[in-house]
Amino acid sequence: MSSLLDSVVIPVLYLISAVLFIVGLKGLTKVRTAKRGNLISAVAMLLAVVTTLLELGLVDYQWIVAGLVVGGLIGAIAAVRVQMTAMPQMVALFNGFGGGASALVAGSVLWLAVIERGVSETPAAVLGTDSAVTAFLSILVGGVTFSGSLVAYLKLAGRMSGQPILLPARHAVNVGFLVGSLALGLYLVLQAADPGTIEIAALALIAASLVLGVLMVIPIGGADMPVVISFLNSLSGVAAAMTGFVLANNVLIISGALVGASGLILTQIMCVAMNRSLGNVFFSAFGEEVSSGGGEYIGVRSCGPEEAAMVLESASSVVIVPGYGLAVSQAQHVARDLANLVEKNGGRVTFAIHPVAGRMPGHMNVLLAEADVAYEKLVEMDQINPEFSHTDAVIVVGANDVVNPAAERDPKSPIAGMPILQVYNAGTVFVIKRSLSPGFAGVKNELFENENTMMIYGDAKKVLQEIVNELKGLVKAA
């Protein structure tokens, strides 16, 4: 029976788990199937955990059950209680915990096999060169992911300045830490043969990886957080895959590789959406200086909710552009109500989604899905841009840099070349914003000066609700 379990049942269960991971990841590529994809991936993870326990055989289930209960409660409470505005920082935390867990597992293997046993041999001799090298890489990458994700969390949560924090000679310091960490790791697994020396080297490697993660993220401004989050997500997958090699666990290798590859692809998509390279994101300190971007505003027009409602009452096509301001004011439900009201009046409403709007990839999609906005109404930038010239009215809610024409018109602008939502082509553009303050890029938004642009100052949720109330009155009167 034991032979059948090891040779047939466990491999088949691992295979099923790996297939479910792939199917679940495929489901996450589309908004309509994302919920089902997430559920399938969760089932795959549960199956992988159960199969691993079967493979281990005699283990102390007391601690395992305790870990499952505590971890499950923390995850459930976080998922239920977290606000949509806090979703990016929760994702950053989960990335960090994934990397930290991989580092802990790889470190425990090194500890139990070499240090605790007091073996006077190198880790490479005890574990094998491949396993020893991947163990140290897992510790390094996992540690960087953990501390870097914590910094990203603090920046996103507003507990740390969102502006770049620049240290003297930061590039040289970062390169020095990286090279030093790699050298220390190779010494640890290939040269250190005394348990005491191995322990000191391992602790030094952990400390160096944590410092490197902090140094890597603190120079990055808030505007680049979507890229940082997706990149750290990729690193957490790489760390998991390396830990899979250490444990000779195929499903961990497969799932980690899937997360690593998909995270890297998403990172590239985010970079293309901003017309930036990954190196530019991590080394340019974007947002270091706030530029006036062309001087003071001239000829900016403003109006109130009543005037906006009058335009929307006769509009046959309306596009709503959500941004981080929508998330901050939690105005997604009111935006949905406004869309429903315009449609009830005979108009057509769509939501234009920029790839880097918000603070994480897909932030606006998740926000609007929570408000039960139909998936068909969420239109990506490349598809919606040709439609703006045929659009009667656009409502920009809390977005800034992603609708700034300076990206197309000013080659000297910090956002020059970044693909934007071309809302300036619409008949009328309403921009709901608290003030004329710049976005994260720190540049003047030329859209505000356009003749067809009207500013509506105030909290997004309050302003949208006032427009809804005014529009209801006009529709009822008609």
Can you offer a commentary on this structure?
- This protein is an alpha/beta fold.
- The chain has helices at 2-27, 31-56, 61-81, 87-115, 123-127, 129-156, 170-190, 195-217, 225-247, 250-273, 278-283, 305-313, 324-328, 332-344, 363-370, 381-384, 406-409, 460-477, and strands spanning 317-322, 348-353, 378-380, 393-397, 428-433, 453-457.
- The protein is built from 18 helices and 6 strands.
- It has a 6-stranded parallel sheet.
- The model is unreliable at 287-293 (pLDDT under 50).
Q: Secondary structure elements and their pairing?
A:
Blueprint (H helix, E strand, L loop, with lengths): L1 H26 L3 H26 L4 H21 L5 H29 L7 H5 L1 H28 L13 H21 L4 H23 L7 H23 L2 H24 L4 H6 L21 H9 L3 E6 L1 H5 L3 H13 L3 E6 L9 H8 L7 E3 H4 L8 E5 L8 H4 L18 E6 L19 E5 L2 H18 L1
Parallel strand pairs: 1-2, 1-4, 2-3, 4-5, 5-6
List keywords for this structure.
18 helices; 61% helix; elongated; 6 strands; Rossmann fold; 6% strand; 478 residues; alpha/beta
Oligomer: single chain
Strand content: 5-15%
Q: What structural class do helix, strand and pairing data support?
A: alpha/beta
The whole-angstrom Rg is 26 Å
DSSP strand count: 6
- Total count of helical runs of at least 4 residues: 18
What are the segments in which pLDDT stays under 50 over at least 5 consecutive residues?
Answer: 287-293
Distance from N terminus to C terminus (CA atoms, Å) equals: 78 Å
Brief characterization of the structure:
By secondary structure, this protein is of the alpha/beta class. Helix content is 61%, strand content 6%. It has a 6-stranded parallel beta sheet.
